[in-house]
Amino acid sequence: MLTTANRFDSKTILDGIRRWVEIETPTEAPNQINKLATLVAGCYRDLPVAIERIPGHSGCGDHLVARSAWGQDKPGILVLSHLDTVHPIGFIERLPFRIEGDSAFGPGIYDMKGGAYLAYHAFAQLCATPARPPLGVTQLYVSDEEIGSPTSRALIEAEGRKAKYVLVTEPARDGGKIVTGRKGVARFEVFIKGVPAHAGTKPEDGRSAIRELANVIQALDAMNDRKRGVSVNVGVVKGGTRPNVIITLSLLLTAFSSYIREGGRPVVQDPGR
Ligand SMILES: [Zn+2]
Questions:
Q1: What is the pLDDT of residues 201-226, one digit of tens each?
Q2: Residue 199 C-alpha to ligand 1 middle, in angstroms?
Q3: Main-chain phi, psi angles of 9, to 5 degrees
Q4: Distance 169 CA to ligand 1 centre (A)
C-alpha cells in the first residue's frame, strides 16, 4: 500500500532515469559504460547489497552485480538489465532528454535504461522498509547486450541457473504486453574471395566477389520467415579497393532464430528488435 513515505512518485523516478540516460553508452564506448556503471554502483551505496564489478574486456565495458544481503543461500530472483544502447555518442544532441505529455524521450530510455532504473528504484524502495521478502534479489547489469552479449553470456547463464525466477527489464510491446520469451541470436561473418583483375582491360581474368556478394545477400534474405520467427539481416558490408578492380570482401550478418531456451528458461538475452 502506498503511503506518503513511499517515493514511487514520477518526478523522483524520472530524475533518476534522466541521470542514467544522460550518460551516453553505446556498446563500443567502454569508458562511457564504465562511467554509468560507477553511477549505478553508487546508487546502491547505502543499500543492503554486495556489489561485484566484473572488469570489461575485448572492447566491452564492465558488468555489475548487486546482490541483496538477504536470501542469497537459496535460488532467488535475478533481475537482468543492460547498460549499453545502440545510439552513438552525440546522439543525445539530436534526442535530448525531454518529457512530452506522459512520455519521456532520450537515447536508450526505452531500451532499456527506463526499465533498468525502475527495477533499481523498486529494489531501493523495498530496502527502505524493514520487511524483507523471502527471496533474495540479484540485479545484473551487463555492458554488451546490443552486440549479442559476447562478454556477458557466461555470467548471465551462471546467474540465471542459480535463480528461481529471472526478470528482464526490456520494454513492453504494443499495448503494454509483457514479453515472456525472446529470440536467440547468432552472428556470422562471411568472407568472399574474388580474383583481382583490371575491370576494363582484363575482366575475363577476374572473379567478382562483389557480384557473388549480391547473390549471397539475396540467398540470405530469402531465409527470412516471419511466420517461423526467423529473421536474417545483413548488417555490415566491407570490401573493395578501387572502382576498376575486382576484389575480395566480407559481410557480417545476424540471424535471429526463435526462442533458444535451456532448462525451460530463455538463457540468451536478445536484442529482440
Ligand atoms: Zn534491450
A1: 888 888 888 888 899 999 999 999 98
A2: 45
A3: -105, 150
A4: 8
